[in-house]
């Protein structure tokens, strides 16, 4: 048997579970079909740390989002992950919506959630000056916050790897066999991993993985959410802004990011295609209309749009439980507030491993509890930067002007525990390509660095892995079959 535990899916849930279990003397495999972690729902969501609001009483969504909210204060400082408790406002624009907010006020108080109902227009404007005058009352949840979801996921994965978890990227599970007291997990390209226990954290593919072992207890309903991102400092929001929610969704959010941008979205569109993450004209118009109910949007400051897929089910709750198949654990159906709950989901899976799978969990003597955040140009003082440049001139070579990313930082990202071998891996760690020009200035330079540091020719360098090549063939000097480290 290769591993004690195999976790399928390296989004925020799978990596949270890996990081939680990595403190024990267990052989753990973390399996991901894509070329990097955080490539599914974890890279395209609102990045909100919710506070347990508007969840069904007694549901896992209620308990795990409340517990998860608390755990960010413990885990993020340990792993060098930035987050901010901005607070969130749910907004009412008519008396019916006011009644809805008052109902949630009572429910939240009964949950011991810190909350305040405000209908004084002056106090509302003090909390968020950008709100329209049509907002007549708000529910204020002060411990709601914001985080960069892929930065959290990467940190969890790196800490897991540092503690001995084996990460398998581009391992697309083709089928699973149950053999005696173990599972054999076969990739579509012929590889095989064996494990005593499987944890199914495969997101929008979690029902497909379950069916591979004969568990047909749920089906995933893909729910697309579209977003529009705006440039830095185009709307200086203080709070996360929600409309009055509906049964289907918390509504179109207007929210700040940690890096000074703001976004509008998502909508909630049930679709048939689990890979249907394209934006639509209708969807973008819907979220713009929704956003304009709360604030005046600076349309000319829009820089990009994107969509993510949430893994919903007819249970309308998270599925975190032991399957009817022995030693097969589900962490599935994780839609909103999944990011907020991921650390608590890992805690619950740990309990299942211990109590229901009967593992004897022994903590490692050499467990590494912390992870250092990569040093960033943007965080250095002039004196610190001058010293860095003196030690390494690459710190003085600016690659991304929009996000202030230097050659030294990109070189470092190519040699971390999860080395960056495509341009979007660098983008998620350091943000080049996320600014106003969306990579128009820096992408070729990043490719040159990857080519040099990872010893790859340009045709091998992709945007996201797989078949996403950026270039296919040189248009000049065609008699040179191999070229490495040259200028584009």
Features:
488 residues, alpha+beta, 5-stranded antiparallel β-sheet, 22 strands, 21% strand, globular, disordered C terminus
Describe the protein:
The protein has 488 residues and is α+β, with helices and mostly antiparallel strands. The protein has 12 helices and 22 strands. It has helices at residues 12-21, 60-79, 95-110, 121-127, 149-162, 206-211, 281-292, 338-355, 382-391, 407-413, 423-430, 443-454; strands at 3-8, 28-31, 48-49, 83-84, 88-92, 116-118, 137-141, 145-147, 166-168, 173-179, 182-187, 192-200, 221-230, 240-242, 253-256, 262-265, 269-270, 302-312, 319-322, 328-332, 398-400, 405-406. The strands form 5 sheets. Strands 1, 2, 9, 10, 11, 12, 19 and 20 form an 8-stranded mixed sheet that branches. Strands 13, 15, 16, 17 and 18 form a 5-stranded antiparallel sheet that branches. A 4-stranded mixed sheet has the order 6-7-5-14. Residues 480-488 have low confidence and may be disordered.
Explain the layout of strands and helices.
Elements: E1 3-8, H1 12-21, E2 28-31, E3 48-49, H2 60-79, E4 83-84, E5 88-92, H3 95-110, E6 116-118, H4 121-127, E7 137-141, E8 145-147, H5 149-162, E9 166-168, E10 173-179, E11 182-187, E12 192-200, H6 206-211, E13 221-230, E14 240-242, E15 253-256, E16 262-265, E17 269-270, H7 281-292, E18 302-312, E19 319-322, E20 328-332, H8 338-355, H9 382-391, E21 398-400, E22 405-406, H10 407-413, H11 423-430, H12 443-454
Parallel strand pairs: 1-2, 1-12, 2-9, 5-14, 12-20
Antiparallel strand pairs: 3-8, 4-8, 5-7, 6-7, 10-11, 11-12, 13-16, 13-17, 13-18, 15-16, 19-20, 21-22
